[in-house]
Amino acid sequence: MGGKSRDRTVLPRDDGSWANKGQDAGRASTVHPTQKEAVKAAHEMLKHEGGGELTIIGEDHRIRSKDTIPPGHDPRAIKDTEH
């Protein structure tokens, strides 16, 4: 199992809530009333799963943010300056 299987995405749902979803999952792992709560849950899950890439999708359905959660491996050699 490669590192990509641990990647997570936070995205808006049609009902106004926010989903925390694993990359290969058919449905959300958790659902939250706010984006902030969904991001926190996804971050904690990645941290406990050994790290990976967290992608946050905004209400406009565009990528808002990407972050590598340690101890995940960032394929880009550039230091993460976002967080």
Report on this model:
- A hairpin with a 5-residue loop joins β4 and β5 (63-69).
- The chain is built from 1 helix and 5 strands; from the N terminus they run βββαββ.
- The protein starts with 7 loop residues before the first strand and ends in a 14-residue tail after the last strand.
- The chain has one helix spanning 35-49; strands spanning 8-12, 18-22, 30-32, 52-57, 63-69.
- The model has no long low-confidence stretch (mean pLDDT 87).
- It has one domain.
Please identify the structural class as seen in this structure: alpha+beta
Number of strands: 5
* Average pLDDT figure: 87
End-to-end gap: 27 Å
Task: Report the biggest beta sheet as strand number plus sense, adding barrel if it closes.
Answer: 5 strands, mixed
Counting H and I runs of at least 4 residues, what is the number of helices? Answer: 1
Order of helices and strands: EEEHEE
Largest sheet strand order: 3-2-1-4-5
- The fraction of residues in strands falls at 25-35%
The oligomeric state is single chain
Report the C-alpha radius of gyration, rounded.
12 Å
Work out the helicity level.
Answer: 10-25%
General form = globular
Number of domains: 1
Extract low-pLDDT stretches.
Answer: none
